[in-house]
Each structure stands twice: as structure tokens, then as C-alpha cells.
UniProtKB/TrEMBL annotation:
Cofactor: Mg(2+)
Biological source species: Apiospora phragmitis
Assigned protein family: Belongs to the terpene synthase family.
Keyword terms of this UniProt record: Lyase, Magnesium, Metal-binding
Stretches the record annotates as Disordered: 1-21
Protein name: Terpene synthase
Pfam family, one: Terpene_syn_C_2
Length: 373
């Protein structure tokens, strides 16, 4: 069996009371968020040493390609996708490879924002056309895309061609499959905006959410970055698939907690917290339940390791590296969530991580429901 990545015994942690801060003003609520750095998330990661230099290059390049104004370029720099990626791969890849992963994430976040808060948010037909176009760029026979006429397509195609140069047809197929699953999930997200949250269970929502967080394509990119390739029969083993699902779920749950303030301010309804609220949970109880969901993820990870067979020393080493890599995707995204200014300013992110207290405007009831905070 592939070796465990962390001690399955969780440390005893102090509990946090739910006493409201005296400084919370009218129209605000303060939430106590779960401790997200326990179990397999408790390890110390090493950051890639090329982070600072490659961030500067990648930020300048994407600003030029996408025609950012000075204000937009500064906002993108503060979002700092390079910071997130630099934890995924640690010291195990060179500057050129790190740059490829950063470029992909610049594409992914900008592309995804069109469907979250941009012009395709409620346009199912426009969303479908955009997805068909992007998928066509992964066809080996597709001509090169003009950076002037289609800057997002140019970035997407360029990254894939760099990926192709150092990967086998099998890993290229895996990447394409994961990208397709993600894009179909985005299309379902656009279509779901008409749905009544009260009719959706948490389990149903998680099936939907797994496809929309773009974590699966990142797993193929991490294989590329770490210089490994898990054999196809091994990657499809139930134990490996269970660990993939846990990694994706951790990204989704962490994101739905830490982006909740941003969601409230932007009027976004679709989140695990709002699914629970629509079913009658108070806001704090819904957040507490996400903590129990995280505990369930850790349990599923260790159960998968217990059922994982050995494929021989060579493959087991590859599997062990892969498991560490997909765990680091989750942990890198978590570290980034407190650092990036997409969700908080830098000081607020530091305080939320240290105190586990998140202050935000009192959110309205989820669409189609009558619930209380």
C-alpha cells in the first residue's frame, strides 16, 4: 500500500466559543469558521523558490495579453495566483514549469469569472458557445490562435502546447478529460441559477460543485510539474479516485467558507452554506456543519489509503508522490485563500486565519427561501 502522508490521529484543539465581538456593528454578523489546518491539512509545505521572480514575469505578461489597465493589473497582482501554485509544487519544479501552471491559473480565473459574475452568468447559450470554442483549441489540428483576436484562447492553447511537449498521449488525454468535466460543470452552474436551493440536498450540491472548482485539471498539471505519470489503470482505482474526490471537496468547502463574504457582497447564492440555510439551518450552524464535512473528508482519505493496494515499488513511489501533490493542491489553495485579496484585504485575511472569526454584512435569505441568520 502507498505510504500515508500524515498521522491519522488528529491533535486535540481548543474549541472556539460563538460569542459575538462587541465591535460588530448593526447590519453585520461575525462567524466562527472551522479550523481548516488539521489532519492532512496540518503539514508544513515548502514554497517554490522561483515564486517571486516568476510571479513578476507572469503578472506582466498576462496584463499585456489581456490588455489590463494599470488598475486591473494591480488587482491581478494582489490576487496573486502565483502564490497558490508555488505551494502546489514546492521546490520540485523549475521556473519554466512553474510559469506554465501560473499562466493556466491566470486563464482559469479570468475565464471562470465570466460565468460567476460576468456577462455569461445568466447566458446559457453564450456559455455553451464559449465552452465549445475553448474545447476545440485542444484539438491538435486546430490552427494557432491570434493573441490579438482571442487573448484568452491564446493563453489556453499556449499552455496546452507547453504541456504537450513533456507529457505522453495518455496524460494529455487525462488533461483533456478533466478540462471537459470542468467546463461542463461550469455550464451546469450557469443553468442552475434558476434552481430552487430548497430542492437540492448537500450531497447533490457537492456532486455539482466538484465539477466547478477546476481542481481536476490541476491534478494533471501537477503530474506534469512533478515529472510523474500515474498509470491509467492505477489512476482509475477506487482508492485513488476517492483521494481525488477528497482533494476536490476540500477545495470546494474551503472556498465556499472563505469566499462567503465576497459572495454576499456580489449577490451570489450558490454555496454549501446557502444550501444548508435554505433548509432551515442558522448561518452559524451551517458554517459549523462545513467543519463536520471537512472531518468527513479526512476520514474518507484515510479509509481510501487503508484500501489501497500495492502496485510494486516503482508505481507505489509514483502514487505516493501523486497523493502528496493532490493534497498540496488543496492545502495550497487554502493558504492562498487567506493571502489573496480576492476575498479579504491582506490584514483581514491574516486575522481571519489567526482568530477564525469572519465579519461580514448580514446576508439575505437564499433565493426562494425564508431563513434567519
Amino acid at each position: 500500500m502507498a505510504p500515508s502522508l500524515a498521522d491519522p490521529v488528529r491533535p486535540s484543539l481548543p474549541t472556539m466559543d460563538h460569542t459575538t465581538d462587541d465591535n460588530v456593528t448593526a447590519g453585520e454578523v461575525e462567524l466562527v469558521v472551522p479550523d481548516m489546518f488539521t489532519s492532512i491539512m496540518s503539514v508544513e509545505l515548502a514554497q517554490n523558490p522561483h515564486y517571486a521572480e516568476v510571479k513578476k514575469e507572469a503578472d506582466a505578461w498576462v496584463a499585456e495579453i489581456l490588455g489590463y489597465s494599470e488598475k486591473q493589473a494591480a488587482r491581478n497582482s494582489r490576487a496573486d495566483f502565483a502564490y497558490m501554485v508555488s505551494w502546489w509544487v514546492g521546490p520540485h519544479c523549475d521556473a519554466e514549469t512553474l510559469r506554465t501552471l501560473i499562466d493556466w491559473n491566470h486563464w482559469a480565473f479570468y475565464w471562470d469569472d465570466q460565468f460567476d459574475e460576468g456577462h455569461l452568468k445568466d447566458d446559457i447559450y453564450g456559455a455553451a458557445r464559449e465552452i465549445i470554442h475553448m474545447m476545440s483549441l485542444l484539438d491538435d489540428g486546430h490552427p494557432g490562435v491570434s493573441r490579438e483576436e482571442d487573448p484568452l484562447g491564446y493563453i489556453f492553447q499556449l499552455v496546452y502546447r507547453k504541456f504537450q511537449k513533456r507529457t505522453s498521449p495518455a496524460l494529455q488525454y487525462r488533461y483533456k478529460k478533466y478540462v471537459e468535466q470542468y467546463m461542463l460543470g461550469v455550464l451546469a452552474q450557469v443553468n442552475s441559477r434558476k434552481a430552487d436551493l430548497k430542492t437540492m440536498t448537500v450531497e447533490e450540491f457537492m456532486v455539482f460543485r466538484r465539477a466547478t472548482v477546476a481542481a481536476m485539471p490541476c491534478m494533471a498539471l501537477v503530474e506534469y510539474a512533478l515529472g510523474i505519470e500515474v498509470p491509467e489503470d492505477v489512476i482509475n482505482h477506487p482508492s485513488l479516485k476517492a483521494c481525488q474526490e477528497v482533494s476536490v471537496d476540500l477545495v470546494a468547502i474551503h472556498n465556499d467558507i472563505l469566499s462567503y463574504k465576497k459572495d454576499v457582497l456580489s449577490g451570489e447564492d450558490l454555496s454549501i452554506i446557502n444550501i444548508l440555510r435554505s433548509q432551515g439551518w442558522t448561518l452559524q450552524d451551517a458554517v459549523d456543519e462545513t467543519g463536520r464535512m471537512l472531518d468527513g473528508c479526512y476520514q474518507r482519505w484515510y479509509e481510501a489509503l487503508l484500501k489501497m493496494p500495492s502496485w510494486g515499488s516503482t508505481t507505489d513511489r509514483i502514487v505516493s508522490t501523486y497523493l502528496e501533490g493532490i493534497r498540496n493542491i488543496s492545502l495550497g489553495c487554502l493558504l492562498w485563500s487567506f493571502w489573496t485579496e480576492r476575498y479579504f484585504n491582506r490584514e483581514e485575511g491574516r486575522l481571519v486565519r489567526e482568530t477564525r472569526r469572519l465579519r461580514l454584512p448580514i446576508p439575505p435569505p437564499p433565493s426562494g427561501s425564508a431563513v434567519k441568520v
